[in-house]
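User: Round two. Same drill as before: sequence, then structure, for each protein.

Assistant: Same drill it is. First protein:
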Amino acid sequence: MSAAGEVLRPAQKQDIPELLDLWLAVFDEKREAAELFFNRNLSYTHGYIAQLEGRIIAAVYLIDGSVNGRKAHYLCGAGTLPEFRGRGVMSRLIGFALADAKNRGDAYSLLYPANDGLYDFYARLGYHSVCTQTARAFTRQSLREAFEEENQPCSKANILLQNNSFMDFAIHYYACYGVRAVRYQNCFALTEENKEEAVVFYFDYDDPKAFAEMLLQNSRAERITLCGKSDSPLLKGGEPERCGMAKQLGSLPLPQDIYIGITLN
C-alpha cells in the first residue's frame, strides 16, 4: 500500500474485465482493439494496477522488448480514472512498475506520450526526449531509385525490438483502424493509404530492392512516405521529430537517438 492509501500490485488475469472497462473509459479506443490487447497481449506484457477500496483506479503496462541486446520494455496504457487524477496515483504506480522491471533486469524503459503536454509529466519521472523519427516523401520513381542505391538491411542499432508475438498482435490491432500489413520474404511494412499517398509508418527489411518492389506492387499511390529511424540513409534530408521518451533503469548509458517504431496508447 502506498502512503496515499491505494494498493499497488501486479495485475492478474481475473482483473481483465475491470481493466478493459478502465481502458475504454480513459482512451478513445475501439472496443475490438482494446479487447485484442487483453485477449492476445498477455505472455509478453506486465500489467500493474492501483486499487482503492477494492476498485481499480489506475493501470499501466510494460511490454517486453530489447534495445541493443539489453532487456527493455515499452510502457503504454497508463490511465487513471478521471475522478482520481491529480493525486499522484500514476506517478506512484509507474515508480512501482519500474522498480519491478529493474528487478527483472530491464535496462531501459521507453514510452510515447499520448500528447505533447505529457512530455513534461514523464520528464519529472526521469524520462528523456531521446526518441525520434524522420519522415521522407518519395514518388514511385524516386523510391525505386533510392532503393537501387541502398545495399544494406535495416539497422537494428538503437531500435526497440519486440518479439514475434507482439508483432502479430500489432498487425491485428492496427487493422482495427484500417492499417494494412504487407509482407514479402523478409520484408514487412505497416501502411495507411488514400488515393494520393501511402504512409509507411513502420518497416523492416533484409533486401532493400525486394522491399521497394513490395511497396510499389501493393500500393497505387503516387506518393509514398516512409517514417523511420532518423539516421537511416534512406531518410536523409528529412527533419527529425521527437517521437517518444526513454529512461535508463540501471548504470548503462542511455542511447541518444532511439527509435520506438510501433506505438500504442
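Second protein:
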Amino acid sequence: MIVNSIQNINSWITQIHNDFKAAVSVDCVIFGYDDSSLKILISRCDMPPYENELSLLGDLVHPDETTDEAAKRVLLAKTGFDDVYLDQVQVFSSTDRHPLGRVITVAYYSLVKIDDDHLAHIGSNDFLLWKPVYEVSSLAFDHIEIMQTCLRKLQKQLREQPIGFKLLPKKFSLLQLQRLYEVILNIKLDKRNFRRKLKSLGILKELGEIQESVSHRPASLYAFDEKIYEKKKKSGFSFEL
C-alpha cells in the first residue's frame, strides 16, 4: 500500500510538471472616495493586444509570497500606503483570459480615502489615474468583469458592515455619511429614514463640534465608535443600513 501510494504521488507530480503549467496573479480593484464620487485607480496597459487600453492594477504572485502578500505589495507600490482596507473577492480562471497563457487571478478590492497624500503619490506616476467608477465601461483582459464583481461585493458589504467609515474623515457630518452611501450604492436615500436608522444603531458618537470653513450652515460632527460597535457585535448585533 505504501509503495502504491508513493507511485501515485510521483505520477501526479510528473503530471503537474508536464501538464498543469499556469501562473497565478492578483488584480486589485482600488476604490477611492473624494466626498463627491466613487473612483477606481487604473493604468494604461502596454501588453498586446491591449496597448493603451485601461486596466486594473496587478501583478504575478512571486514564488515566495501568498496572494494576500502580493496584493499588499501592489497596493503599497501603487498607492504609497500599506494600511488600506483589503478584501479578497473571487478567483477568475477562464482559460482564455490572458493572451500569454494560462493565468489564474485572485481579485481583491481595497478602499482609499483620496486625500492630498494619495494624490501627490499618484500624480508622480504618468501611468496611473483616478476615474469615476460609473464612467468605466471597458477595460483590458476580463478586468471589467472583475471590477463589476468587486463593486457588487463592496455595495453588499457597505450595507452589512461599517466599512464606509474608512472612506470618511474621523470627524464627519451625517450629510457626509449619507452622501457616501448614496454615491457608492448609486441611489437616493430619504434623509429622515437614514438618520432614524443611524440613531437606532447606536454606534455614532456626537462630538459637540460643528463644521468649520464651509459655505453652508455648519452641521454637527460625529465619529464612528468602533469600541461600541465591537462590543455590540460580540452580543449578536447586526449592522444593517
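The two ends are 58 Å apart (CA to CA).

User: Perfect.
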